[in-house]
């Protein structure tokens, strides 16, 4: 047997026996036609065809073609994670079943996210659909998104995964995609289109999952012309997000003059401490105070459009350091002012206990849209004074026109 291998390998050094070529990445690799056709039915069919071709062209897939030529000439080659996928691809193209079987087990043993994704990217760069690799990524999507390597993959590869017929989008997957889009909406605009076409509430998704702030109105308008849905449908949602130095420039501040909402309270200490003071920019001198101390609340009543609350900002009054500020409260929503649903609950939070101290609070889960939103104090920081005292209020989220 060793003599046979030696004889076959010796042919490699005899140019007169090189009557066929493997063409790869514009380079010709000479081989013996009888030798290659004996292991590849594809080459055998090429040789007997009327075209009389003396070469077989492989796609421009990057890989160790020298290992494949060594295999043709009977040289023992080491198959590992660095070459198994390339050799397996070539073996399938040329129907060399012995090489295909020899590489299949190594592929299964080395199917890491890095190996699978990198090879899938190479296939895509050559215009080849990486069906096997995509299916692996789809079936393991929940775990691979925890790997930072996958976030470095091309938008095209991630798009292929999302479009796969077996792909099912979970909340974890949605969070991952939302994070990619928020980091670079232009780069991942095709992912935005996919989510829209799948009827995913992108605004609500970002609102619930996004840790940093992004203007979704800009994102939507940047891809509106590519979407099948009309731009008017996209623009029917107005998004308000808090940002640094703009913690009180949200829905209330931007719509204070157009009468699309009213602000009411369960009670007012007197007209000087009206709930309307919560809209005043002069928060040092103007503040709201309730009359009583038991489950007092302030309420936003939207005129016609429901609102998906994602964040809200509260500011204590100028002497809140003395304790007269909320530390526990419930945020509730309703569509009839009769039945109320809990949106958010805060217990023993003392971030407002300072002169005009404020904080932005993120709703822990995305609620449905509500026509009425209220914040009800359940306890204050003061030992005795339990009145509800605030100097500023703002809400952020999605207005559904």
Brief sketch in words of this structure:
By secondary structure, the chain is α+β, with helices and mostly antiparallel strands. The protein has 16 helices and 14 strands.
Beta-strand residue percentage: 15-25%
Name the shape in a single word. Answer: rod-shaped
Ends distance: 80 Å
Q: Radius of gyration, Cα only, in angstroms?
A: 33 Å
The SSE order reads: HEEHHEHHHHHHHHHHHHEHEEEEEEEEEE
**CATH fold node name of the largest domain:** Jelly Rolls
Q: Pairing-aware structural class of the strands and helices?
A: alpha+beta
Q: What percentage of residues falls in helices of 4 or more residues?
A: 25-40%
Average predicted local confidence, pLDDT: 83
Strand order in the largest sheet: 5-7-12-9-10
Overall number of domains: 3
Strand count: 14
The number of helical elements comes to 16
CATH homology-level superfamily of the largest domain: Galactose-binding domain-like
CATH architectural group of the largest domain:
Sandwich
How is this structure best described in words?
- By secondary structure, this protein is α+β, with helices and mostly antiparallel strands.
- It has three domains: 2-110, Potassium Channel Kv1.1, Chain A; 169-235, no CATH class; 251-400, Sandwich (Jelly Rolls), CATH 2.60.120.
- 34% of the residues lie in helices and 20% in strands.
- It has helices at residues 2-11, 33-39, 41-48, 65-72, 84-94, 97-109, 113-125, 131-139, 141-144, 155-163, 171-183, 189-197, 202-209, 216-223, 231-234, 251-254; strands at 20-24, 27-31, 55-58, 237-240, 261-265, 288-289, 297-302, 307-315, 326-334, 341-346, 358-362, 372-380, 389-390, 392-400.
- Strands 5-7-12-9-10 form a five-stranded antiparallel sheet, with no helix packed on it.
- Strand 9 (326-334) and strand 10 (341-346) form a beta hairpin.
- The longest helix has 13 residues, at 97-109.
- Residues 1-5 and 220-235 have low confidence and may be disordered.
